[in-house]
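Ticket opened by: R.M.
Priority: normal
Category: complex prediction / small molecule

The reporter submitted a protein together with copper (II) ion and asked that the result be attached to this ticket for the collaborator who will pick it up next week. Submitted input follows.
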Amino acid sequence: AKIRHYKWEVRYEYKSPDCFKKLVITINGRTPGPTVLAQQGDTVVVELKNSLLTENVAIHWHGIRQIGSPWSDGTEGVTQCPIVPGDTFKYEFVVDRPGTYLYHAHYGMQREAGLYGSIRVALPEGKSEPFFYDYDRSIILNDWYHKSTYEQAVGLSLPSSNFVWVGEPQSLLIQGKGRFDCATPSLEPGVCNATSPECSPYAVTVVPGKTYRLRISSLTALSALSFQIEGHNMTVVEADGHYVEPFVLKNLFIYSGETYSVLIEANQDPSRNYWMTTNVVSRNATKSAPPGVAFLNYYPNHPQRSPPTVLPAGPAWNDDKARLNQSLAIKAHRDFIHTPPQLPDRVMVFLNTQNQIDGRKRWSVNNVSYTLPHTPYLIALKQNLTNAFDQTPPPDGYDFVNYDIYKVQNNTNATSSDGIYRLQFNITVDIILQNANTMQLNDSETHPWHLHGHDFWVLGYGKGKFDMYNDPKKYNLVNPIMKNTVPVHKFGWTALRFRADNPGVWAFHCHIESHFYMGMGVVFAEGIDMVGNLPSSIMGCGETKGVVHRP
Ligand code: C2O
Ligand code: CU
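Result attached by the on-call engineer:
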C-alpha cells in the first residue's frame, strides 16, 4: 500500500461554471476539485490550507468509513473544530474499499459554493472487477445557485414571517459545467458571458467499439436528478462502493450523496456526438433549472460539435413510481453478498417532518430539530465535557399509532436539540426513515439520507406508514445492497440496518444542504472508549480551548 499525498489550497475565486460569474470556492484553482486517486489499502494524506481569508472550512470524505481515524471525517462540530483562515489541517485516512466516493465541504452550507470532488479507489494490482471496461471517467452532477451560501443561510434562519427559501437552482452542472441563459432580463452587464469557455459543455470522448465505466455521482444542494445518454443504455454495476447485480437502465435516478458506476458501450453511429443530459425530478421540474447538458463525443468528431438531434426529454419529473422501482431494483452482486445480521438489537423509527420551532421553519426527526454544538462531540465525549451538549438523547420513535403522515400536522411539541444517540458498541441497529406530509397540504419531499462512518444494508422501501408488524417480514435479508446514502421517497419509508462497529461519532442526515442546515439530521456515538488519542489539530473551539493534549 502506498501513501497518496495531496497539497490543497482552498480559496475564493470568480468563476463562471454556468456562464454566470460569481465567487466560488476552488481547490488549487479548480471546481470540482482534483480527483483523489488511490488503490485499496492506500493511505490518503491531504494537507489542506485554508486561504478563504474570512471563512472557516472543513472537508468530509463521503463514503470513506474512517476506521481508526474518526477525527479525519471532516464534519465540523461533530469530529473537529473548523479550520480557521490561514491554518493548514492534515487529513489522513486509509481507503479500505475499492469504489467511487466523494469529498465536499462540511461546514455551514459551504458545499454548494463549489467545494467538492471525486475519490476513486482502484483495486490492488492483479485484482479485477467483476465486469469489463476499457476506460474510466468520473462525472459529478450538481445544481447551482447564483446567491451566495451566506445569503441562503441567513434567509433560512429568519423568523417564519420573513423566511426566504433558497428556491430552485439556476442551473444544473455536469462535471462543473452548466448553461445559464445570459439573455435572462435584469442581469447586470458583464456578469454573464455565454461564450466563456468555462461554460462550454463537458464532453466525454469515446472511441467507437469501446466500453466505458462512467462513475456518476450527485452532490446537489437540493435537486433529485435523472441522468441519461441519448441512444445508449447504461448497465448499473456499482452503487456507493458496492457491486450491484447488473441491470440496464435508460435513465438513472440519482440523489445527492449517491454514487453509481454504469457501463456504456460506444456502439452507436460514430459519425456524430450524442446528448448527455440531467434534469430535475421529484420537485416540479417546470419550475426548476433547465436540463444540464454534456456531450458524448465519438472520436474523432469535434468534442464541442452539437448532436444533430433535438435535446431528448428526460423522464416525467413526477413519476414517483419509476423512482421507487429503481430503488427496489438495486441488489448486491451475487458474488459479493454481505449477508446482514438477521435480527436487530435496537430499532429506531425516524419520522421526518417540517416544523415550526420558536417562530422558525425547521426540519425535524421525531420532532427534534438538530442543531450543531460549538464543541465537537468527538472531543466532548473523549474528554467528558458534559456541558458541551444536551445529555438527553432524542427519542427512538414517534407516536406511530396516532400520527397521520398524510396530514399537515402542528407538531407543537417540536424542539431543537444537539443531543445524540449513544449506541452500544457492535450492536445491530435498524433505522426506519418515515416520510410524512410537510407543512403544505398534499406535499411530501424526497430526502436522501447519508450515514457517516458506515455502510448500511438497504432492507426495503415502502409506501405509506411503516407497519411495525408486517413490513419487517418483507425485508430483503438475502441480497440487500450496502450503501451510505439512500432516498426516502414521498410519503414512504426506507428501512436500513448497520453494525455500530466503528468507534467514533457519526452524523446521519439528509444530504439536501438546506434541510440539514434546518435541522434534518441526527448523530450517533459508539465505542468512544476505543477511540485512540485525538490529534490536537481538531481542537481549539468551544470548550476544547483550554484542553491540553495528553499523549
Ligand atoms: Cu456528504 Cu455529512 O455528507
Ligand atoms: Cu431532506
